Amino acid sequence: MIRQFTPYFFSLLLLWPLAACNHRSQPDASTSAVTAGKPNIIYILVDDMGYGDLSCYSQQLLQTPNIDQLAADGMRFTRHYSGSTVCGPSRAALLTGKHTGHTTVRGNQPSGQLLAPETTTLAEALKAGGYVTGMAGKWGIGHPPPPDDPLRNGFDQAFGYINMWHAHNFYPEFLYRNGQREKVPGNITDTTYNYARYHPNGMPEGTGVARVKEQHTHPLFEEDALNFIEANRDTSFFLYLALNIPHANNEAGYFLGDGMEVPTYGPYADRDWPQPEKGFAAMIDLIDGTVGRIRDKVQSLGLDKNTLIVFTSDNGPHQEGGHQADFFDSNGPLRGTKRDLYEGGIRMPTIASWPGTIAAGSTTDHISAFWDVLPTFCELAGVAAPEDIDGISFLPTLLGTPEKQRQHQYLYWEFYEAGGKQAVLEGDWKLVRLHLRDDSKAVVTELYHLADDLGETRDLADENPEKVAQLERYLKEAHTPFPGISLFDSGANAETAF
User: Which residues form the Sulfatase N-terminal domain (predicted)?
Assistant: First the structure.
């Protein structure tokens, strides 16, 4: 079953010379992106950047001029939410259009959670509609290929890390290109550390701290992305650039106290800051430079009026590798960080730019989430989206027609780590449940009204039992059992505790 094309897609056909209503499973080599009427799509996902880490989102100490310009040229989202509060399930929600109550990847632990083979991914949907699909950077789902290489999930080409632990290592000895190992010259891993202390079940492939550091991976991913754009300038393309910074090298943090590995501290070298904070700042600067060069490449090829660029982060700011989120006020006015289901863990700085189509300097408070990206891009491209998804296209918001925008009844998250958590958002009402898998603690239910309390400091649960009961019904409705692990342990925290 497929979705019917909506009026928003057909309204888009006026923006390009020829309509794209004749869908092919493979692109016609003689048909360019412009004449096909299908915009190029570049989705830039960074790793562990907080809502307050960009100067266009109130950051005071770090400057991000290129990202700020992206926002000035396009639309800034103030209520766009990640798929989860850690990388694996967040990326799964992005790629499948399903929230964590329905995806087959619900956490980073236990390992081995993979995308279901029968699931249609974002890349598969766009590829079926004639797009060339490529990714560079951190896949972050599953293990080394097989079984969960990007090429098995709709990408024509892929370069980078497969498992998330490998992506901790910014100076790895190898990466994967199209499912095959490719040596990174000059990098040598230090084998003298007691890695088993932190990985008692064995070191995940590629993880570690480099003894010899010749090649940081960030420039490699940028180069690969720029080459992909150049090579596919004459056809419709989807580029998924998943940068693995400003995440920390957790292993370096354990052993050295500083996991913020960068080639140089750049403009922050002389600051009187702890080294991990200089490293974090330099990572933000690296990201900003990459965004600038991506934009420059698109403009130099004359593709800017036919290319949508989206920039966001996979979850809230981390406190790893010696970095502290409050040093740069990384979560801004929000409570919580990575691994929290408070706003700081899941509300993402998000920018969409498409000159001539998205209004420059615009801002939206439309409530959307990662699982909305798949139907949005499918509608944009004139591609059928799967029906078994949770997402709603936010294309009307991008086009400046909010009166046509469908709304979610609620957004839902569940997280199996850190004691087990759930959250549901209905408009400005937010319910959070804690300690679901920790039988040593009673389940805690908290209710917040974000319009009056953005920082989630005043629990209103006792004052609003009817609202709590309503939102708890949504929690039960959205959750489906997950094979192999329960969100609710035995005893006081059994599922019947609702």
Answer: 39-383
Measured in Å, how far apart are the chain's first and last C-alpha atoms?
Answer: 34
> Across-strand partners of 112?
none
Residue 190 sits in the same domain as residue 280: yes
Residue 19 in domain: no
Distance of CA 222 to the CA centre of its chain: 17
Say yes or no: 339 and 439 in one domain: no
> How far is it, in rounded angstroms, from Cα 341 to Cα 484?
23
* AA letter at 152: R
DSSP code of residue 436: T
Q: Write the single-letter amino acid at 469.
A: A
Nearest alpha carbon to residue 247 among 347, 150, 333, 165: 165
d(CA 227, CA 236): 15
Kindly report, residue by residue over 218-253, the tens digit of the pLDDT. 999 999 999 999 999 999 999 999 999 999 999 999
Q: How far apart are CA 371 and CA 147, in angstroms?
A: 23
d(CA 394, CA 150): 25
Q: Determine if the peptide bond prior to 110 is cis (ω within 30°).
A: yes
Q: What is the DSSP string of 227-291?
A: HHHHHTTTS-EEEEEE---S---HHHHHHHS-----S--GGGTTSSS-HHHHHHHHHHHHHHHHH
Comparing CA positions, the residue from 256, 294, 295, 300 lying closest to residue 275 is 256
Answer for the pair 209, 193: CB distance below 8 angstroms, yes or no: yes
On whether residue 297 sits in a domain, the answer given is: yes
d(Cα 244, Cα 115) in Å, to the nearest integer? 20
Q: What is the 8-class DSSP label of residue 98? A: -
Q: How many CB atoms lie within 10 A of CB 35?
A: 14
Tell me: pLDDT of 32 over 80: no
One-letter amino acid for residue 87 of the chain:
C
φ, ψ dihedrals at 338, nearest 5°? -50, 140
Q: What CA–CA distance (Å, rounded) separates 72 from 93?
A: 28
- Interval 64-104: pLDDT, tens: 999 999 999 999 999 999 999 999 999 999 999 999 999 99
**Residue pair 83/371 in contact by the 8 Å Cβ criterion:** yes
Among 15, 20, 16, residue whose Cα is nearest residue 5: 20
Domain count, the chain: 2
Which structural domain, as residue segments, surrounds residue 458? 411-497
As a whole number of angstroms, the distance between CA 411 and CA 390 comes to 9
- Cβ(43)–Cβ(136) under 8 Å? no
